[in-house]
Amino acid sequence: MRSPKSPYRVEIGYVKPLEGLGSASSYTGETIDQVLAYASNEVAANRTAAYIKVMHNEDTYPKFNWVVVGTSKMDANGNLEQPLATNNEPRHVIGRRVAQLRNEAGMTQAKLAELTGMRQAHIARIEAGRYSVGIDILAKIANALDCTVDIIKNPPK
């Protein structure tokens, strides 16, 4: 099943090409669990070892910016051999928050890059969670967005 409007996509790579499928196939869905279920069913039905790559569209349809959420391997029964990383890792959470604040400020990535002295591509990597920002860069971004960097939710008493 493929829907261009679905926010998640799973790519299944086969060790040996399958007749009618080739060396990879992909499915889209509304959640990570849904695309993992497609992958599991596909691998179990074909009894072939595979890798899977789950991606999330960080843009809004009709634009696409597929970002890898995680990769894993599946056994011949369609079970994950190792846990799949999710996009709730700190760099993804920070990236989504930076993008949200930038959008709320009505600012483009290019403008934020200009204000921080960084390249637009660097801002894009941060927002997509592909780059783990240090405190100095985070402070520059917060300053440009007229925000603060709060790293402690509940300070000790």
What does this structure look like?
- This protein has 157 residues and is α+β, with helices and mostly antiparallel strands.
- The chain folds into 2 domains: 8-74; 90-144, lambda repressor-like DNA-binding domains (434 Repressor (Amino-terminal Domain), Orthogonal Bundle).
- Helix content is 36%, strand content 23%.
- A hairpin with a 3-residue loop joins strand 1 (8-18) and strand 2.
- Helix 3 (109-116) packs across helix 4 (120-127).
What would you say about this model in short?
With 157 residues, this protein is of the alpha+beta class. It has two domains: 67 residues; 55 residues, Orthogonal Bundle (434 Repressor (Amino-terminal Domain)), CATH 1.10.260.40. It is built from five helices and four strands.
Question: Which secondary structure elements does this structure contain, and how are they paired or packed?
Answer:
Elements: E1 8-18, E2 22-29, H1 32-46, E3 50-57, E4 66-74, H2 90-104, H3 109-116, H4 120-127, H5 135-144
Antiparallel strand pairs: 1-2, 1-3, 3-4
Helix pairs in contact: 3-4
Major sheet strand order = 2-1-3-4
Counted up, domains total 2
Strand percentage lies at 15-25%
Total DSSP E strands: 4
Structural class: alpha+beta
Terminal CA distance reads 53 Å
What's the rounded overall pLDDT mean?
A: 79
Using brief descriptors, characterize the structure shown:
157 residues; alpha+beta; 434 Repressor (Amino-terminal Domain); 4-stranded antiparallel beta sheet; 4 strands; 23% strand
